[in-house]
Amino acid sequence: MSVLITGGCGYIGSHMVWELHDSGESVVVIDNLSTGFDWVLPKDVPLVVGDIGDQALVGQVIRDHGVNAIIHFAGSIVVPDSVTDPLGYYFNNTVKSRGLIEEAVSAGVNSFIFSSTAAVYGIPDTDSPIAEDMPLQPISPYGSSKLMTEIMLRDAAFAYPDFNYTALRYFNVAGADPKGRAGQSTPRATHLIKVANQTALGDRSHMDVFGTDYNTPDGTCVRDYIHVSDLAKAHALALARLRDGGDSLVANCGYGHGYSVLQVLEAVKRASGVDFAVNYVDRRAGDPPSLVANSERAGSVLGWEPSHADLDLIVETALSWERMLLQKHT
Ligand code: UFG
């Protein structure tokens, strides 16, 4: 029996593949390689290059590999792109997820784990850590496309009692595999830690800090940065729980501790030893001032105990990966 990982060649998906591979699980990956890379996978993990929107292909893979669980990462993730191309995002993230869920249900694959996001909360009405029962009010098509998939999963689990899912709402995922086997490789990345590391290594001439006038301790936005390996562990725990007959669950994944943009930049300067220059510019549209997770549910229900909750470790592992990428491309 195998676990099907969609988007397994992408940033978080590839860490998940390694996590399950390390624990001796049989895994099969579907990825269309639109943003992922096949070289990141363990050599003995089968990769089917194709699109999850191809339902016949998905059904074939489920049958051929005896798939009994699906972890679904494949999708588009750039928030501003979703604003300019909403229909593309609803197609890729929502319509294709619907087809995947349908294939799972019809093939009797009853354990489904979905990669959701803090973007489902939009701009929270509070600066306190956000719990799962806070209002769901996404402000981008990206957030809406993910929320719509959560809703489909909820309704499918209601209609088909054998089908159970876990949706994990990620806060700011960062860092790389401490063993250096996987990391964030996406070109034209916009995420803070990757951009800052690239600037420190001279791969970018400069970087911007978007907004210094927020109502936060130092005026810059606060985020809950979570190490990608801890996130992969949360999925592994969710998988074990579903296999043990656990019911459907939605859970946040974050550390419950926020860092400002300036604090992150200090950590990157510490790790790299480079005091790179930054430009202070206007706010970026759609940035909530503060997003910090209340992840008590992941702790109590999944037994999730993060072991990489350290901003310096997050930055150092991401920096090592960035150095490797630079060498690879020169
Ligand atoms: N930032 C900068 N300069 C940069 C990049 C980012 O100042 O070059 C700031 C942003 O303005 C923001 C913070 O750093 O205040 C974090 O920005 P990221 O782009 O790294 O991450 P986001 O918080 O925007 O995005 C995250 C997830 C998304 C999710 C979103 C929900 O990565 O998948 O939270 O709000 F949708």
Structure description:
- The chain is α/β, with parallel strands linked by helices and 330 residues long.
- It has two domains: 2-174 and 226-253, NAD(P)-binding Rossmann-like Domain (Rossmann fold, 3-Layer(aba) Sandwich); 192-223 and 256-328, UDP-galactose 4-epimerase, domain 1, CATH 3.90.25.10.
- Helix content is 40%, strand content 18%.
- It contains ten helices and 14 strands.
- The protein has helices spanning 11-22, 55-65, 79-84, 86-107, 141-159, 192-200, 228-243, 261-272, 296-302, 311-328, and strands at 2-6, 27-31, 47-49, 67-72, 111-117, 164-170, 172-174, 207-210, 222-223, 225-227, 249-253, 259-260, 278-281, 290-291.
- Strands 3-2-1-4-5-6-11 form a seven-stranded parallel beta sheet, sandwiched between helices.
- Helix 1 links the parallel strand 1 (2-6) and strand 2 (27-31).
- The chain starts with a strand and ends with a helix.
- The mean pLDDT is 96.
- Uridine-5'-diphosphate-4-deoxy-4-fluoro-alpha-D-galactose (UFG) is lined by residues 77, 79, 117-119, 142, 172, 190-192, 195, 207-210, 221, 223, 261, 284, 287, 291.
- Uridine-5'-diphosphate-4-deoxy-4-fluoro-alpha-D-galactose is lined by residues 77, 79, 117-119, 142, 172, 190-192, 195, 207-210, 221, 223, 261, 284, 287, 291.
User: What is the global morphology?
Assistant: globular
* Percentage beta strand: 15-25%
The name of the CATH superfamily of the largest domain reads NAD(P)-binding Rossmann-like Domain
Structural domain tally:
2
SS-derived structural category: alpha/beta
Q: Counting H and I runs of at least 4 residues, what is the number of helices? A: 10
Q: Quickly give the CATH architecture of the largest domain.
A: 3-Layer(aba) Sandwich
Q: What's the number of extended β-strand segments?
A: 14
Query: Would you state the CATH class of the largest domain?
Result: Alpha Beta
